[in-house]
Amino acid sequence: MRILIVGGGGREHAIAWALHRDAPDATIYCAPGNPGTEALATNLPVNATDLDRLADAADAYGIDLTVIGPETPLALGLADRLRAEGRIVFGPGRAAAQIEASKAFAKDVMARAGVPTAYSRSLTSLAEALACIDRHAEPLVVKASGLAAGKGAVVCATRGEARAVATSMLAEGRFGDAGRVVVIEEFLEGEELSVLGVTNGEGLILLPPAQDHKRLEEGDTGPNTGGMGAYSPVSLATPALLERVEREVFLPTLAQLAREGAPYNGVLYAGLMIEADGTPRVIEFNCRLGDPETQVILPLIEEGLTECLWQVAQGNRPTGIRTAPLHAVTTVLAARGYPDKPETGAAITIPAPLPDGVTVFHAGTRRDADGTVRTNGGRVLNVTAVASSFTEAQARSRDAAGAISFQGKVFRRDIGWREAVRQQLGV
Fold it and tell me: What residues are paired with 37 via a beta bridge?
């Protein structure tokens, strides 16, 4: 099999790593890939949003299966373009990808499907947005409706803060086109959980649940980011809760998308808030594998990943995958200034050999002509550790992250702190 992975971040490195492990005889290409994927695949100098050149590459390299990693090419209709040319593609079409590309669309779908979520209003007028905020309880959330690289949701402690955020989006263009519609939403309390399902729109397999840490600083403080680390599995996600999530969230959403002429194929990501009484409510949907959740979920899959993606991409129900009874933790190493103005260009040193069970996935890196690997983005590396216990995986990930060096390195040492508390309390 000849597989093309579209994208060049940590998620795509993890996908390449997992597919290579599952199907070592497959020939893998990454567009554009990164220095980490070089050892697993042939990197193609094609941007993930260049639909014409990606279609040409699929032809030129005789690609059997295309796996689209990031949300932007999905929202641009890459899956539709390739399918129209007879290609087998894992990832939703443009209509279904609106579930992430437009938070306003997602809210409408959830309302019609009866999916539990936060009360919200979607607005395009600054005057209407400010009036809505002035009537809203504190705290509240202001979101850019469009794609904002995971940084478009702002939790506001006060209405004054919310007014400033809405003004920055609607009047000052903070997120460009992504912020032309804002969603003003009630603040949900509880514990966040990421649940991802592989689906052809009807059949569904849930992957191991994960929990990520979106805030920059320890103790879940500081600004929102695309994610500073994650772990899987999560003891909060009992079989009973996951059954409820499947029944109340995934199946109604998939059915509603089909009714609206947007049948789903690929991975549907549900970002959930689990309230104190155990009720799951949707914070957001993503139309692809999460980042950095992918970096802890895929290492736990022992067998069947390639076949599952292949079957779904052909429109068939997902086939079974086997997961290992292990624990995974990933720690994100970010650049100084992330998420607003990350510094780039610092040389990176990764000790070798890596400790047992530790894999470093490249995210924002580049390689100079002389072979030096340098920082090239906000989130630079994902340090993933797999072990027989959560405590060991957490320690290995944290220690390995500390051993990697580059100027301005930023990372959290408390990834999985809620799980650690639960274990200490024996709950």
Answer: none
Residue numbers of the domain that contains 57: 2-93
The label of the residue with tokens 């009484």 reads 277
Distance of CA 162 to the CA centre of its chain: 25
User: Residues 381-416: pLDDT tens digits?
Assistant: 999 999 999 999 999 999 999 999 999 999 999 999
Residue 106 lies in a domain: no
Which residue is it, tokens 């998939």?
254
Work out the angle between the directed axes of helices 251-259 and 94-101 (0-180°, nearest 10): 130
From residue 41, give the alpha-carbon distance in Å to each of 38, 44, 70, 210, 354: 5, 9, 18, 27, 21
CATH classification of the domain holding 227: 3.30.470.20
Chain centroid offset of residue 200 CA: 19
Residue 17 within a domain: yes
Q: Are 383 and 409 in contact (CB under 8 A)?
A: no
Q: How far, in Å, CA of 102 to CA of 224, rounded?
A: 19
Examine residue 116 and state whether it is found in any structural domain, yes or no.
no
Q: Specify the pLDDT at position 153.
A: 87
**Hey, which bits of 233-276 come out as E strands?**
266-274
C-alpha distance from residue 226 to each of 153, 185, 367 (Å): 10, 20, 23
